[in-house]
Amino acid sequence: MFFHPMDILIFIAFGLSLWAQSKVSNNFSKWSQVPATFGYTGADVARKILNDRGLFHVPVEVIPGRLSDHYDPTSKVVRLSEDVYYGTSIASVSVAAHEVGHAIQHEESYGFLTLRHQIFPLLNITSGIAPLLLLAGFIFHATSLIGLGILFFSVVVAFQVITLPVEFNASSRAKKIMLADGIISKSDAEGVNKVLGAAALTYLAAALISVLELVKYILIFRQNEED
């Protein structure tokens, strides 16, 4: 009933997303077995980068879970999974440096990160309501509900698209800082690129899926208006 030719592209993008997630897991597992040259733990790396840039007020905490690492902009805390916090592998230092990249972005008021923070409260509302509006619009053939659902879903898409430069920039910062600060050697760089590059693919795939879904809904909306 709701099948649309755009679904083919969405299925392809969804497949890309699954592949990207698998690649992240595989790369993390592979490079978790390869020690970084200078023996820093993820916690050491995070603390060193923060301290060298005067961010003594940003704590580094350990949390449970695998690949649960993140920077909390509300509390201004870098949280690292146990594997990353205690690990001395290329994967561990790469992830730790990436999350610290977000803390540096926050301190510098990096434009895209600031915009993402501003959109986030709205996202909490629209992400839950948009699917309900779209579903109701399709069931009852209510063009106005579909239009409103599209408007709400646009916020979700905007958030995911804005996330792309935020994540790519954090990874770029991490690579440059680790080399410049002597945290990794040039021989470690290949592994760092593999780990962070795979993670970037997951964000790219998620954004692509959302954009294609939005285009699909807009096409359906226009078709309903013409009927």
From TrEMBL:
Spans through the membrane: 119-140, 145-166, 195-215
Superkingdom of this protein's organism: Bacteria
Position of the signal peptide: none
Keyword ATP-binding: no
Keyword tags: Membrane, Transmembrane, Transmembrane helix
Alphabetical list of Pfam families matching this protein: Zn_peptidase_2
UniProt key word rRNA-binding: no
Protein name: Zinc metallopeptidase
InterPro entries: Zn_peptidase_2 (IPR007395)
